[in-house]
Amino acid sequence: MIGVGAMERPFPVPGWHLPGVMTAGSAQVMLKSDGLVRDDSVFAGSGPLLYLIVAQYLRLGVKVRALVDTTPKQNYMAATGLLPGALGHTDVLTKGIGLLNEIRRAGVPVYKYAEDLQIRGEQQAQGLSFTAKGVSHSLDAEHIFLHQG
For the chain, which domains are there? Predict the structure, then answer.
């Protein structure tokens, strides 16, 4: 089987080579193929796959520590001009809004406009440090899933 257009997109940040750091796509494959999940994980990067897999985890009752979105604010601003065309695809918009609401209702912290990501740890991932909206954050986590979509 060929996955036309399917592409795993990890991105290098300090510490991305440590055990416990994987791609968001691998989190979804483990979930769908073997029913394996990593409780209390952090998902970081950009794109709809992050929101989808977090929602899938939540639907199974799996705790998610946080979603760290690296999409720059200017990307949202640039996309506002595309809104009239997007209104012709209400099914996609409804699905996206539904994912956002599902994550919000579950109480998962979502950090927007994150930058300067660094995975902490020496032998194993121990957490993620980053800046979001000018504020420094440090989250403890043994499992961190990355995706740049």
Answer: 21-147 (3.50.50.60)
